[in-house]
Amino acid sequence: MSKIRSIRAGCSKLRTRQFLTKIEQFSTQRRKSILMWNPDFCKNNECCNDQWLIEDLSGLEKELNEKVFGQHLANKLVSEAVKSHIKNKDPKSPLVMSFHGRTGTAKTFVSQIVANSLFKKRIKSKFYQFKVATIHFKNNNNLKECKDELIKHIQYNSEQCYRMLFVFDEFDFMPVGLSDVMTPFLDYHAAVDGRDYRKNIFIFLSNVAGEVINDYIVRHYESNRPRESIVSKDLEKYIAITDLNSKGRFDDSKIINTKLINVYVPFLPLERKHVKQCAEAEIKKKNYSFKKSTLEAIANELDYFPDAIPWFYATGCKSVVNLVDQLPSD
Ligand SMILES: Nc1ncnc2c1ncn2[C@@H]1O[C@H](COP(=O)(O)OP(=O)(O)O)[C@@H](O)[C@H]1O
Ligand SMILES: [Mg+2]
């Protein structure tokens, strides 16, 4: 199916997946009987057990700090929240995090690093479910159908493993009212329809509050304070207020209004030095040789803000990746 067609398909694309997952479910049931005959089954097939799930997350913060530049708040908040959730044998609710920031600041990248840290199969794990609102939940005309699909998506996957990582990108573009059906799965319920959802992790990615974060950091820099002295408490307050007041899809979201988000994670705009770090990492990934002047040239290609003192790069590291792609490979 072409990309355009699959995008247009909206919720029906998800239905096809669910048809396929139904077959998978059937084979899951069969798997139990296969297991009786073949105890080696889980050696070669991903199962929800300690052979495939990673319990020791002691390296997560280090990995985030090594790979994600300029995001001291996000790296700390995410690694602490995920580690303590996984360590807790009896969490009272799932871990629900909301990532905020302008495009290209590493929201998707950080959720992938979290997936890599939780599952041996890393982002290929079937216990990592990444959905993009504008692709998978686009069908505004049939909200009821979309709601059913979303409920099934969460229920079916949670049956596969008690520890699922659900990531919803472009969460602010969910059709109005759709995300409300998620609230029972995010709340402090011991069980919903006999199933316990509390070991799951949900991450919502959005650009909402990007401007608020940018304004905040500009004021912080204007008063000559270092980036690392920004503390999450202050920013969290601003983001939560923006969420509540934002005109658009977050409007009236039950998830926001009933305070089901445990951690608001701000992604800060990046400085020139971070952009160069991103470029260097990307060049190394491709095994290209590079000179310092290449990094300078890439950084010079980009637009910075505010106009008065151009501290921050306007569109994050995403276009850096594209610029590196255009470099000659020798
Ligand atoms: N802060 C950062 N540190 C290192 N790499 C980054 C950073 N931000 C973005 N990148 C790079 O840019 C790519 C695109 O970023 P992405 O996570 O998709 O941005 P977002 O989801 O915030 O729009 C990432 O895969 C990563 O390679
Ligand atoms: Mg993204």
Automatic annotation (TrEMBL):
Residue ranges annotated for the Torsin-1A C-terminal domain, each copy included: 270-321
UniProt cross-references to PANTHER family, sorted A to Z: LD13476P-RELATED, TORSIN
Alphabetized Pfam families for the sequence: TOR1A_C (PF21376), Torsin (PF06309)
Signal peptide boundaries: none
Transmembrane annotation, as ranges: none
Stored SUPFAM superfamilies: P-loop containing nucleoside triphosphate hydrolases (SSF52540)
The protein's name: Torsin-1A-like isoform X1
Source organism phylogeny: Eukaryota, Metazoa, Cnidaria, Hydrozoa, Hydroidolina
Family: Belongs to the ClpA/ClpB family. Torsin subfamily.
InterPro entries: P-loop_NTPase (IPR027417), TOR1A_C (IPR049337), Torsin (IPR010448)
